[in-house]
Write a structure and sequence with these properties.
mainly alpha
Length: about 80
Amino acid sequence: MEQQLEKTTPINDITKITTLKNKLQKIHQDIYRKRREINRLTENINKTEKLLYETCSHKWIRDRSDDGAYGSSWYVCAICSLDKD
């Protein structure tokens, strides 16, 4: 397929195409690295929240959304601010 490309595409366009392909590959690699970093940070957050949940002597208070009389409510710890599961 590259031989066909060379026959029909001028050299400047081939260089530009190669540059764009390399740029696209680099962007995909960056996305992959950032996803791995996000996953690692998410795991760290979950472990820290679990440790906080186990360490705190919770004082649960009822919290409500601002949706009026029919809004949802949930319990939040007044000490550590975690939601009650």
